[in-house]
Amino acid sequence: MRLLEVTETLAAARTPETVFGVILTPALEALNAAAGAVLLVGAEAGRLKLVAAQGHAAGAQALWHGGPVTERTPTGDALRRQEPLFFEQPGDLVRAYPTLEARTGVVAGATAVLPMVLDGRPLGVLVLDVGHPRAFSSDERHFLRILAAQSALALGRAQLLTNLRQQQQEADERARQLLADARAHEAFVAFTEAVDQETDLLYLARQAVAVLRGRFPEADIGYYTPAGDVWKAQVWSDDMDAALVKNMTAGLPGSTPLIRRTLETGAPVFTATWNPEREEIAHSGAYGVGAAYPLRVGGAIRHLLLIGLKDTQEWSGQDQALVRSVGRGLNLALDRAEQVERQERQTAQLDARNRALEGFAELTRDLSLEVNPYVLVQRAQSVALSLLPEGYALYFELEGDRWALRGQTGDLRREALQAAADAGLPYHEANNLLIPYHSRTPYYQDQYARHTDNLGDLVGHLGASATLPVLVNGQVRGVFAVVLFGSARSWTRPDQAALEAVVYSLGLALERADTAVQLQVRTEEAERRVQALEAFAVLTAELNVEQGALSLIRQAQEVVLRLLPLGHSGYWEPEQGLWRRRTVLGDRQPQALRALVDAGFTVGRTPSLDRPWQTGEPEYHDQYRPGTDAPPEVEQPARSTVVLPVWEGTRIRGVMDFTTYIPHPWQPADRAMLTSVMQSLKLALERAQGVKALAERTAELERSNTDLLTANQELEAFSYGASHDLRTPVRHVKGFTEMAGRALEQGDLGKVRRHHQVIDQAADRMNDLIDAMLVLSQAGRAPVQLTEVPLGQLVTQAQRDVRLEFPDQQVSWQVGALPVIQADPQLLQQVLTNLLSNAVKYGQGRDPLIVEVWGEEQPDEVCVFVRDNGVGFDPRYADRLFGVFQRLHRQEEFRGTGVGLATVRRLITRHGGRVWAEGHPGEGAMFGFSLPQQ
Question: Average pLDDT of 774-799?
Fold first, then answer.
């Protein structure tokens, strides 16, 4: 009972500390021990750490301090051997570990060192000090072994729960970080849209400060312009220290280290471990790090962004990237604003300039929301051609050793020339493209020279040409070409300004498109990561360790399918050389493919399933190749697939596939989501397996307790039988032997024969009792082999046996419906034969004698009843019927040993069932037994 209470208390423990308290108290009480300690294998592999102690005086616990597992100590040896050590005399411990006393000066009386091991993995040891010599009984050693095993289970479960809580906290932190990043991205998008339409320098600066404050709430940010030898703040964050604002607006000298390094390098400067004296900026002592970003206009640094962060000591790569993105966007906007201002100041050739500005504005407006780069190119070509005489526009990008045509507006008027352009121009021969690509400046020809691109007569109808490099983020993306038909034409400065404005605007549009795509991808990835975290949290909360493994796997499939495009999922396990699908969700496979799946795929010849099973790693296919697993002629709707190993503890239980019916490249967010869900499933399967094992061990312990109780009861009855029932025939043999001897001396042979008959009857009685005891003993030892048993067949055989035992007794048998149950057929046959024999024996002389047999199925058990109309019994003594040698009728009335019903109880108890009896004198009796539903 104590062990059962400890087991229940350990099952409710949720933290290691609770487990320590539960371990020590019953262990100390069970042994009347003076003190105890718990040592666990720490995070540092191979070392034990003292984590709990009870009953030790100050300084005494030094005997059981932590140390390497490999060190030769009682705790290390017990853990390495995974066997308990018992030291019953003080000399035992000193002889086994002589250095222990020399090192600590403290040696207990009797000591038990118990290893705690879970699934072969050492967790720690439990040490109990009795304080005086004593011998550990086998029951105590058995109790301590079981206590150590139960403690290991409880510690493993507590550690799992602790790990899950830590993972949940980490997931929450990642979700908060993703939310902060998403908000920063939203602010950056808003900033991009604002600077796309605004030319006011101070407004642009305020927008940049707002974006950066969205990411760095505790930052001080200022926008500076030069005034002589100092840089003065024009815009700054609202909550900046008043003294610092005064210092900034008065102006920071150009020799200030942060400003000087930025001006010298012409690149952003990020400084860590801020020192206000070193940086020579007064009132900036609260900063942890600082940064400066140069803003160029017309190639010269005309403005500065200075940033000071108070809540960090180091710049992350992500934060630096955000500062660079905002600075680059602001720089582009400032440059554009400067260009617009410069164009507005120009007065020469007003009409051409106006057309260029209109074209530039139209292109900027049309391309502001477009992200397809080649759509942007074609729209830029249309704008450029609208400003010039008749001609065509081409756009080339370098691919390997050829110039590939990526955009065209207008007709080239020569099929051969069109074919040459479509095929791609040789890299070294197309000088019209090569020159601007390497010089990064436009290349104008008032009259296109035929030898320029080595195209010969194909270009005889062409006039002027212009080729301009398209710069995107400072790199040449491609070459924009405009060719006019007819005679030579001089490229005027307004013409050049118009084309360069269009191409420059195209570069900005391509930069915005790239940024928009990157932001879209990052936003989608962030959303997918949030979905993955939510899915992980939902799955962790919903998975119930009391569910079956397939039910847990099905739940994981449902969670993942909700996050993927339309498709299906299957779970597979190998069986006799074939892959068998155990669960499937969303299956829309064609009939022919489903037939192959139902038949099973061959293990070792199904790559998609074999590789994850063998390697333990996921197998991703962005584009599933038909014929990989099934014959190529079988229709297969799969477009993208992933197959993942399903771990259960340290073994792979099976593999799970997810298939989409549309192409779906597996993004990092998808993989993170799948990894999280599969890890959660693994933990759930491990927990379910652990709970199942604990339940089985608990049930086994309960059965052992029941068997022990029954054995004790039967032992008591045997003692009674040995002292009473067995001695009675012995007394008869001895007494009548003496009487027969005297009668023989007297020559009275009649008396000798009568005495000899009594002796013979007593010997038979003793043989019957011994045989019955042997039957009872065998009933307790015979293994129980469960199988499906038709009760009707067993009752029929029992009737035949009873007819042979009582051939002269007429019986009216009334047999009702009897189910098929799970039991051992031989043992259950003995039960039914004993009950039917009892019913006929105690009904002898009844006319008619009626024996009824029937069964009843309950939700949790099957009950079987045998009722007769015989002599019955006093219900006050019903509990004695199933005891050994317990009889309610005299031997002269009804022969018997008093062991038959005890055998019935022993056999039914071994099946996990129960027995009972009801009756009244002269009214018959009813005996029943139950067996659990399997």
Answer: 76
387 domain residue, yes or no: yes
Measured from the Cβ of residue 725, the count of other Cβ atoms closer than 10 Å reads 23
What is the rounded distance in angstroms from the CA atom of residue 329 to the CA atom of residue 343? 21
Task: Please tell me which residue, 58 or 144, carries the higher pLDDT value.
Answer: 144
Q: Determine the Cα–Cα distance for residues 712 and 706; give it in Å rounded to an integer.
A: 10
Contact 410, 391 (CB under 8 A): yes
Contact, 69 vs 48, CB < 8 A?
A: yes
Is 80 exceeded by the pLDDT of residue 598?
yes
Q: How far is CA 737 from the centre of its chain?
A: 82
Contacts of 95 by beta carbon, 8 Å cutoff, 6+ apart: none
* CB < 8 Å & 24+ apart, contacts of 184-190: 184/211, 184/214, 184/215, 184/322, 185/519, 185/522, 185/523, 185/526, 187/211, 187/214, 187/215, 188/322, 188/325, 188/326, 188/329, 188/519, 189/519
Angle between helices 549-561 and 668-723 (to 10 degrees): 170
Same domain, 312 and 358: no
Residue 698 neighbours by CB under 8 Å, 6+ apart:
7
The C-alpha atoms of residue 563 and residue 557 are separated, in whole angstroms, by 10
Tokens of 357: 């500005």
Residues forming beta bridges with residue 523, ordered by sequence position: none
Indicate if the pLDDT at residue 189 is higher than 70: no
Total domains in the chain come to: 5
| CB-count exposure of residue 305 (10 Å: 0-12, 13-18, 19+) | buried
Q: What is the distance between the alpha carbons of residues 927 and 905, in angstroms, rounded to a whole number?
A: 11
End-to-end distance of the chain based on CA atoms, in angstroms?
A: 27
| Cβ-Cβ contacts under 8 Å for 241 (sequence gap 6 or more) | 220, 283, 286
Q: Return d(Cα 819, Cα 727) in angstroms, integer.
A: 44
Give residue 40's domain range: 2-163
Q: What is the pLDDT of residue 62?
A: 47
In a domain, 507, yes or no: yes
Those residues whose C-beta lies under 8 Å from the C-beta of residue 551, and which sit 6 or more positions away, are none
Domain containing 805 — which CATH number?
Answer: 3.30.565.10
Please check whether residue 765 lies inside any domain of the structure.
Answer: no
- Examine the domain organization and report whether 611 and 684 are in the same domain: yes
Residue with tokens 């030790």: 56
Q: Which of 363-377, 439-453, 539-553, 707-721 is most confident?
A: 439-453
Same domain, 557 and 657: yes
With 50 as the cut, is the pLDDT of residue 266 above it? yes
Paired strand residues for 408: 394
Q: What is the pLDDT of residues 859-905, one digit of tens each?
A: 889 999 999 998 888 788 677 677 655 555 454 444 544 567 777 88
Contact of 109 with 134, CB cutoff 8 Å: yes
CATH number at residue 88: 3.30.450.40
Residue 774: partners with Cβ closer than 8 Å, 6 or more residues away: none
Does residue 719 surpass a pLDDT of 70? Answer: no
